[in-house]
Amino acid sequence: MNIVISGSGLYTPPYSISNDELVATFNQYVDNYNIEHQDAIHAGTLTALEHSSSEFISKASGIHSRYVIDKEGILDPAWMRPRLQERSDDEPSILCEIGVAAALQALQNAGRKAADIDLVIVACSNMQRAYPAIAIEIQQQLGCSGYGYDMNVACSAATFGIGAAADAIRAGNARCALVINPEITSGHLDFRDRDCHFIFGDVATATVVEAEAGSNAAQAFRILGTQFRTQFSNNIRNNFGFLNNASPETRDSRDKLFKQNGRKVFKELLPMVTTAISEHLQKESMQAADFKRFWLHQANLTMILFAAKKLLGREPSSDEVPIILDRYANTSSAGSVIAFHLHSSDFKTGDRGLLCSFGAGYSVGSILLEKC
Fold first, then answer.
1. Which residue among 96, 124, 144, 155 is the active-site one?
2. Does 155 qualify as catalytic in the annotation?
3. CATH number for the domain harbouring residue 299
4. What is the CA 20 to chain-centroid distance, rounded?
5. Is residue 165 situated within a structural domain?
6. Domain limits at 322?
7. What is the average pLDDT value for the chain, to the nearest integer?
């Protein structure tokens, strides 16, 4: 049975923060911190914090701005995190709200209605709550039948989710699935950490996955093959969870937000990514030159270009490897789907593209696609 991605959707938050705005807030925080702790700094018991700069951010990441759910709280030097009011149990959660927005666009692009969906998978890095599942909440909000569940493979969650949906359809457990990636990554970011305060942005993406035989979408992409790989690593980690309440002494410590050892990630994860993709292509009797475009995880510009160059054996063109992280930043699992959503309409029948994600875990997911 051939399975297709028949539609995709994108929700972009209303607020954008430029590097200059982010740096101004960070540097004000640094100045306030250094003044407040000047005695300890002079005594050598504390180290003075250093300013950041827009130039440093651009050079380190390729990011120029990011979209966020809340801007005011992030740019308040005394707060430096999004201010998001908790909602009552009778109101849609924030992840549900932005997930529904992306899902409705994906349904429209697929020529489907919510009533056609019998599987909803919410696949993202950080769930707003443990249960009930956000996927089941979205199922209820949209009016879908069948079943739904949440899954987390960090930055690879979207590709793993698409693979799980395709498998469920092949197994006869679903006919038409929605895979939704609502990422409020600003909520797990420490905006006081110079090494990472600029990395993430908020967004939601969605894809409709169904059997090719039943699809009537004008822009469907046939899934030629999928491959997934994981390998344990502590180099990208977030220790936030319900068991933190059992250790109140460390409940708010630094490790309860995103942290990474960037140098080790680059050194260890990229070879794993390029090897996994190369093996996937070889397994399917294909090569990188057979593909018109690579929709890669939007983590860091250097990482994206390094991976593409390794696969192609040459410098990739901007058309072959579209970049969206300059204005969206790293949106975790949603990044490669944004690239796919914004840069796939020019494909003709038979054109091939590769959708790939990689990140914490470590995890790597690759999906080979062909325009129907």
1. 155
2. yes
3. 3.40.47.10
4. 23
5. no
6. 224-371
7. 95
